[in-house]
Amino acid sequence: MQYYNLFLDLKDLREYVNYIFGRAYFDGSQLDILYNRTGEAFDFAIILIKEINEVISDLYPILAYIQGCIGDHFGDDIKQNYLSENDIERVDEYLLEKDLTT
């Protein structure tokens, strides 16, 4: 349930930034907390994906598929459309560190 609650919190933040940010003061007081919670959730998901990959990689190399999608397909489009150059560099470093892109 904690990941679902995190998802809802991040959704609320996204909606706030999309619809209110330009019209109201945004103090960002929850960003560090959400950033840390998101990192923990991603770390857990990455560990789970890698464990599953170890079991099924002979039948379906899911990690290679994920790496290709992030590195060659929609991942690049998302980064280019929504992130600054600085954020793209940070995301790329994270993805490479976690072995999630090509």
Helix-strand blueprint:
Elements: H1 2-19, H2 31-56, H3 62-72, H4 74-82, H5 85-97
Helix pairs in contact: 1-2
Structural notes for this entry:
The longest helix is centred in the middle third of the chain and has 26 residues, at 31-56. It is built from five helices and no strands. The protein has 102 residues and is mostly helical. The radius of gyration is 16 Å and the shape is globular. Helix 1 (2-19) packs across helix 2 (31-56). The model has no long low-confidence stretch (mean pLDDT 82). The protein has helices spanning 2-19, 31-56, 62-72, 74-82, 85-97.
Write down the secondary-structure element order: HHHHH
How many strand units? 0
Give me the Rg, rounded.
16 Å
Specify the biggest β-sheet.
Answer: none
What are the segments in which pLDDT stays under 50 over at least 5 consecutive residues? none
Helix content: over 70%
What's the N-to-C terminus distance? 32 Å
User: What is the molecular shape?
Assistant: globular
| Beta-strand fraction estimate | under 5%
Structural class: mainly alpha
Can you give me a brief rundown of this structure?
The chain is mainly α. The protein is built from 5 helices and no strands. Helices cover 75% and strands 0% of the residues.
Key traits:
single chain, 102 residues, mainly alpha, 75% helix
